[in-house]
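Hi all, long-time lurker, first post. I run a small reading group and we've been trying to get comfortable going from sequence to structure in the token notation. Rather than ask abstract questions, I figured I'd post a concrete chain and ask someone more experienced to write out its structure so we can walk through it together at our next meeting. Sequence below, copied exactly:
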Amino acid sequence: MRPYVCYAAYLLPLLLLPGTSARAILRQAPSPATGANTIKLLTLNQPPCATPSAKAVLVAKVAYHLTEQEKSAYGYSVSIKFQSTDRRRTFSEGRMGHVAATKATDTLVIRYPLAAVWSRPDLKRPITCYFYLHRNAAQGRSLVIASTPAVVFTECQ
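-- Answer (accepted) --
Happy to help. Here is the structure in token form:
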């Protein structure tokens, strides 16, 4: 059975109303199930009710926790991914926004220049991103084992 946290990334975008700020989403994030791998967005450098520009560099501080049962010969990583116009897909460019997770519990800072994805036609507007905790596998593959709720950058009215 997959942890509750994994489904939050799929359900939360359906529940968001126009005008919901990134800060409001952080306050409303559900608590993860006990004994689950977790990732939580602690801070984000974008103010509420402001749409970032192509020149913006997102800086996020995230905390993650791996359960004692987690074992991977290839390690773990944390990343930022952006929602595609295909709601089943998120993406980023190359290895930007990926940080190795070397401890069972830690806090990391992720930096991502929006210019890397800004002009992509498949970038969903308003810009929506997630932070993922990955179990790495062979040949550059990984499995998302925890995620944050969606962070949607909309201008407040």
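A couple of things your group might point at:
The first strand starts at residue 38 and ends at 44.
The beta strands are 38-44, 57-65, 76-83, 90-91, 98-101, 105-113, 128-136, 142-147, 151-152.
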